[in-house]
Amino acid sequence: MRLVPLLLALGLTGTAFAAERETRIPEAAVTAAAQLREQALADNTGWNVVESLTTEIGPRLAGSEADARAVAWAQAKFKALGFDKVWIEPVTFPKWERRGEIASVLGAYAQPLTITALGGSPAGTVEGEVVHFADLAALEAAPEGSLTGKIAFVDYQMKAARDGSDYRNGGATRSKGPSAAIRKGAAGFLMRSAGTDSHRLPHTGITRFDEGLTPVPSAALSVPDANQLARLAARGPTSIRMALDCGWDGQATSYNVIGEITGRTKPDEVVLIGAHLDSWDLGTGAVDDGAGVAITMAAGHLIGKMKQPPERSIRVVAFANEEQGLHGGIAYAAKHMGDLRKHQLGAESDFGAGRIYAFNTGAPAHARAATEQIAKALAPLGIEYAPDQGGAGPDISPFSAKGLTWGWLAQDGSDYFDLHHTADDTLDKIDPKALAQNVAAYAVFAYLVAEADGDFGSAPRADAAASE
Amino acid sequence: MRLVPLLLALGLTGTAFAAERETRIPEAAVTAAAQLREQALADNTGWNVVESLTTEIGPRLAGSEADARAVAWAQAKFKALGFDKVWIEPVTFPKWERRGEIASVLGAYAQPLTITALGGSPAGTVEGEVVHFADLAALEAAPEGSLTGKIAFVDYQMKAARDGSDYRNGGATRSKGPSAAIRKGAAGFLMRSAGTDSHRLPHTGITRFDEGLTPVPSAALSVPDANQLARLAARGPTSIRMALDCGWDGQATSYNVIGEITGRTKPDEVVLIGAHLDSWDLGTGAVDDGAGVAITMAAGHLIGKMKQPPERSIRVVAFANEEQGLHGGIAYAAKHMGDLRKHQLGAESDFGAGRIYAFNTGAPAHARAATEQIAKALAPLGIEYAPDQGGAGPDISPFSAKGLTWGWLAQDGSDYFDLHHTADDTLDKIDPKALAQNVAAYAVFAYLVAEADGDFGSAPRADAAASE
């Protein structure tokens, strides 16, 4: 209805042939978004939320007592922030827990090593010679049986990057290394942490063991400890002892916690933003992912405080147990598959608290102009439109794979892997100004999507493919 | 004999009235020192020594098995580096050890806290409400009995400084805080680490309990944990549980390990340089004080390789158990008191591995010109002469108190308290170029003192006072 005059006003009549299908954002909404942006930059709700979560709950490993407290915290926080609908949806998953971990070099150079068990590792004590591999490929190239009774040590050093791109290698070492080591006969697996810091704080994270293999104790060394073990191994045969007390312990149920700001004209259509509520147990989950919870909760809150709420609802999801396998995201997608078309678009904040520097959506052609309008509204925040980049955040990805259109607000992750999955992931690492920039970006983005005339292409995958 | 012509040559006849007593350094030695300086800057012996000590021995808490290995390592290293006399002198002290430490917040905000026992703390488990004090003075001002059954938490945040000057406050909190807390009735003592970092790595260090007091478990929180506990305490009454397994366990004997480059004309006169061989148990003792051991060993080694050794001997001492009470320095002073006058001067490197930026000696007036000559030879290393500053390093101080003249080569300690007494004190924190600058400075300094015509005023304190 409003679209054709708008396009005419914008001088876009050259594309008017597509007018009836093209999604556009009304100018009044763009104006309101600019006000929202400035208001968000001056607001400290995001900081207050992450301060509250990290201080009052602290570490919240999925399935733990603290995780249950975090669920209650999130419900209370949504209500306190003015979300008019707040509910929970159960998520059940295998429960893993860490009870203790210790390692030491044996023999002439005896000394302790700082390690942390990888999530999913079994308990166990292993003693054996360390076999050093420069990277995962070197381990995979080792002869069959060559590691029998030994401990594989994959020494790959991740490089820092704004987009965190080398997590590709660091993460692969963690996820594939243990199984590769077992195939060669190894009794244990050690890796240089998938991290870019230089502190005695190892990085945990989930690993998986391939079907048919018997899992072995698997852990990460802090970066300085990896340096040390590499130096020792270079001197000659080096044996270590590693004792992990950890493992799977039945099933646990946690919850996706959901808060909604109800839309004024299309309340059943939603813009989905979110982050994950769980954290690893070593730190207080500030950058992973308290920041994301805070950014999206604060963005929803600020939209809810506007004089006129947007046409569609803003749904903020604090996902359960992302860390051990996207359990919350998978559960959300399964539960809401029937409502896929009611979801305009989804975006997750799960890459720390650094400034957002780039934006895109996975919307099809008929919503590119609207995507560009959003990009223009984000530009004053120092955010570039990156039309060929991006993808779904982890908890959005299961739904995105089924057809949900993703939004992508890329955070500067230059220091993210200094902190990721370590004890050092604490509140002091968050810059309140950068956090506010994130809140402003999410608020503007979610509001404009909610105000758009037309959709962003979310549709069950088969339909989506057919329509293009 | 050589002094008067030298002074004439230098145009310093205005001070020639003092010529017969004034200490000066021959020009030939100044020239040789310039060559030594350049050679040292290009040499990697210092790096190799600290790499060897931190890698092969690692943590070496005084009295531990690793400490004994460090003694053997130091003897072997002195020999390998060409020191022509190598010997050990026993040092006996009470042995303290750490076996475990854990703390957690109790109640609604339950979560773990990262702590480390202060050296000298008794074992014990205490549970109680935390009472927050901004600093030591606030604790000392608390009413008598006001902490009965509670845990004092002194929250002083040390500031970074090139000269480490705020260790005055951080160190005082650690050394005096526990006794002050006990006097108010406290069942336990917690402090924000005496550190300037922001990592989950608490700083240990020795504490003492005043006579007549019953020691209580005493520990330091990492800086982020102190932030966290302060936030929790600000929210309302906060109780914690702290369990320390540590304590004194009889006597141990370790050794001052000494290497000497024998002087060519006055072999019984020595220039004393050194560092301490022991470390705390958390890190590998790289900046505290593997660097100092490496700097002084490498300086002695390079002097020993000169075509013509200096007139006096260069004595390098790797002191035993500095950390728990300057035991090695006290033992050295006691054993060598009769040879005090044979010691030209003493200097210890025990402030990390940062570049040296200032120099001075505690020499009396008759050796100021020689001190200035040394300063001039150090200037190309970016070292300023600071005639009103300085003092004896820790292990030199007991001997200095008895009359040994100190040399002072001030290191840039801007980041020293990021690492000091933490698990993060590891090799990767040392800049090889800065280390080489230290070696060059110590080599030049020790060589020129050893070549001086005249003394630097070392004399038993009563005599020294009488002569000024």
Q: Looking at this structure, what is the CATH superfamily of the largest domain in chain A?
A: Zn peptidases
C-alpha geometry of chain A: elongated
Pair of chains with the largest interface and how many residues each contributes: A-B, 36 and 36 residues
Major β-sheet annotation of chain A: 11 strands, mixed
Oligomerization? homodimer
Tally of domains of chain A: 2
Structural account:
The structure is a homodimer of 468-residue chains. With 468 residues, the first copy, chain A, is α/β, with parallel strands linked by helices. Chain A folds into two domains: 21-84 and 262-467, 3-Layer(aba) Sandwich (Aminopeptidase), CATH 3.40.630; 98-249, Glucose Oxidase, domain 1 (3-Layer(bba) Sandwich), CATH 3.50.30. Chain A has 14 helices and 14 strands. Chain A has helices spanning 3-9, 27-41, 45-57, 65-80, 136-140, 167-183, 223-235, 286-304, 327-336, 368-378, 397-401, 416-419, 432-451, 461-467; strands at residues 85-105, 111-113, 115-117, 124-133, 151-154, 188-192, 218-221, 239-261, 266-276, 312-319, 343-348, 356-361, 384-385, 407-411. In chain A, strand 4 (124-133), helix 5 (136-140) and strand 5 (151-154) form a beta-alpha-beta unit. In chain A, helix 2 (27-41) runs parallel beside helix 10, helix 8 packs across helix 13 and helix 10 packs antiparallel against helix 13. The longest helix of chain A is centred in the C-terminal third of the chain and has 20 residues, at 432-451. The model of chain A is unreliable at 1-20 and 463-468 (pLDDT under 50). The interface between A and B is large, with 36 and 36 residues.
